[in-house]
């Protein structure tokens, strides 16, 4: 019976961000700018770090890894949205839909864990400077990054598998511009209780790094405040403040999106997903490097090397 129902479903229809043609056009233009900025911004970070030996340390390796994940993350959804809009098509295949969902969750979680690794790295550097090189040895850096990837993919696999097994009974209209887990679950005519429980478990796994980030920044502040230097305190607050802004935007929107009853979802929530799908991957390279003199110097060198004046 289940297989029979499923065989009807070949494609899904992506309803878009608001479903209104004019607003979709606006978002199309917005994404047309946001996506290249995300790619170029993150790529420049990776190249600047690769080619500047001054930046060959854990903090920048983690930043390069974050940029790499952000490039992949935004490439899972935005190019499909752009090409569909250009072709005036709303179609995504069943396989494409499940694949998109898998990589969304996997890369979103990897991103979340790398953000925590970066905060932990700063906390160790500032509160235990003498032990920094032993704690952040090359081996533990690789372990932290591999760990982030493993957790991300492990968290995504059950959702993709259990969603792929659902029946859809001819309901094909996904209320978002990409295949997100909640609109897909709402479409299904199977019993989704288990899937919803898995989703809450998944968001919990996603949110664990937020606790590490908060603890790390509390440790940073505590250390900085112990050494009274107005300049140091201001610098720490402005740097950590901008990090905390993107971090809270990211976790706040994701948690607000998935930690709630499935019945409360509608197409208007798609606008909220734009925040973590498009905005945070674009902001990350700027937030983590603009206030940073070494990073700016490396970027300057990179650009002047390529474009001889
Ligand atoms: C990611 O981090 C690892 C370990 O610190 C490092 O060896 C690797 O070069 C980084 N990846 C990128 C894309 O910079």
Automatic annotation (TrEMBL):
Chief place of localization: membrane
Entry membrane topology: Multi-pass membrane protein
Subcellular location: Cell membrane
Superkingdom: Eukaryota
Annotated keywords: Cell membrane, Disulfide bond, G-protein coupled receptor, Membrane, Olfaction, Receptor, Sensory transduction, Transducer, Transmembrane, Transmembrane helix
GO molecular function, one term: G protein-coupled receptor activity
Residues of the G-protein coupled receptors family 1 profile domain: 41-288
Organism: Chrysochloris asiatica
Membrane-traversing stretches: 26-49, 61-82, 102-120, 132-151, 198-220, 232-251, 271-290
Function: Odorant receptor.
Protein name: Olfactory receptor 1A1-like
